[in-house]
Design a protein that fits this description.
With about 325 residues, the chain is an alpha+beta fold. The protein has helices at about 20-30, 45-80, 90, 95-110, 120-125, 215-235, 240; strands at about 115, 145, 150-155, 160-170, 175-185, 190, 195-200, 260-265, 275-285, 305-320, 320-330. Among the domains are: about 90-200, Nuclear Transport Factor 2, Chain: A, CATH 3.10.450.540; about 215-290 and about 300-330, Roll (Nuclear Transport Factor 2, Chain: A). It has 7 helices and 11 strands. Strands 3, 4, 5, 6 and 7 form a 5-stranded antiparallel sheet that branches. A 4-stranded antiparallel sheet has the order 8-9-10-11, covered by helices on one side. A two-stranded antiparallel ribbon has the order 1-2. The radius of gyration is 43 Å and the shape is flat. The termini are far apart.
Length: about 325
């Protein structure tokens, strides 16, 4: 007679997919009068992941809602603290472009006066001034001033009706700024108060650069070719230009508006044997529109003007000869 093993076998080891089937277990329990025994919860780990995900989701929703409520208040407080800029026109409705044009026109009249003809200025100022304003708008009627090169420099939008427009100008040897307060309503502008003259910033301090390294042999080789190129460039003759321009490239000239007075300098830095970026300094002769006089030496205005100009050229060697591939204004780093 075989001896029964005392070791309990776990039915799960045998590969039974459900070692405790509920249906059979419930029937068996009922038959023996015992309460059914429930299986252990095998999915506990999955439910914790679900609840953790729900907590994270609700936290994100709360953050989004809070930020959405705070955003309008943050914008309002920032608008109160930050100074107005030209971009404020998008929200304030102030037409900055039209205000700039209005202020430019006003400055062209306001900054030009002559005691010999004060009434002309007064008439020209009328379209810009509020009703009842002084016709000369602060000028005492003496002296003379001529200003030009008037350009829009900036705008400070205060609200939907008011702004300060700044324009730049030049008078004789000085540059300056004019701040023009303007009022806008229903498509119309008016200068709302006395303008203010302000100093313009001086020129920037330009750092000194060391003298560039120069390839004197290539400079000597290029000089006659570039001299011919600039003569053809001034004349604008395409047939002549193609003798100096790289194959497949078209460069338009000045059509006789200038003539070459001098090829003053050619700067060629060391580089590749068949391609370089070089700087050329030329003097253009600009013909005067005034008729010639018997003794032009006694009339400087009748002499051709000379303008010194600097160009950056890209040159390349084709068949043992240098040709121009591109020409543009000089970059300071080249020369």
């Amino acid at each position: 007679m075989a001896r029964r093993s005392d070791v309990q076998q776990d039915p799960r080891i045998a590969g039974d997919p459900d070692p405790y089937p509920l249906e059979g277990f419930e029937h068996a329990s009922a038959a023996h009068g015992t309460a059914p025994r429930r299986r252990g919860w095998s999915g506990g780990g999955g439910r914790w992941l679900v609840w953790t995900g729900r907590v994270i989701l609700w936290a994100l929703i709360i953050v989004i809602v809070v930020n959405g409520v705070r955003a309008p208040f943050d914008r309002l407080t920032q608008d109160e603290r930050a100074p107005a800029t030209p971009t404020d026109s998008a929200t304030s409705g102030f037409p900055t472009t039209k205000a700039a044009a209005f202020a430019n026109q006003f400055a062209a009249v306001y900054l030009n006066y002559d005691a010999n003809n004060p009434q002309q200025r007064a008439e020209r100022l009328k379209p810009f001034l509020p009703e009842g304003a002084d016709e000369q708008f602060g000028w005492n009627g003496y002296g003379r001033m001529q200003a030009g090169a008037i350009q829009f420099a900036g705008i400070d939008v205060i609200d939907e009706h008011n702004a300060r427009v700044t324009v730049s100008y030049q008078s004789e040897g000085t540059r300056g700024l004019l701040s023009v307060p303007v009022y806008y309503d229903n498509g119309k502008f008016v200068v709302s108060a006395q303008p203010a003259l302000l100093p313009a910033p001086g020129p920037a301090g330009l750092p000194q650069l060391p003298d560039p390294d120069r390839d004197s042999a290539t400079e000597a080789e290029l000089r006659p070719q570039l001299e011919g190129f600039f003569k053809a460039y001034a004349a604008g003759n395409q047939v002549d230009l193609q003798r100096y321009v790289a194959s497949g490239v078209t460069i338009n000239g000045f059509n006789g508006e200038f003539s070459l007075a001098e090829l003053k300098d050619v700067v060629v830095p060391p580089g590749a044997a068949d391609s370089r970026k070089v700087m050329a300094v030329v003097v253009w002769a600009v013909s005067s529109d005034r008729p010639a006089v018997a003794s032009p030496s006694q009339d400087p205005a009748a002499q051709p003007a000379g303008l010194e100009q600097a160009y950056e050229l890209t040159v390349e060697k084709q068949g043992g000869k240098w040709f121009v591939r591109d020409i543009q204004g000089a970059n300071r780093s080249v020369g």
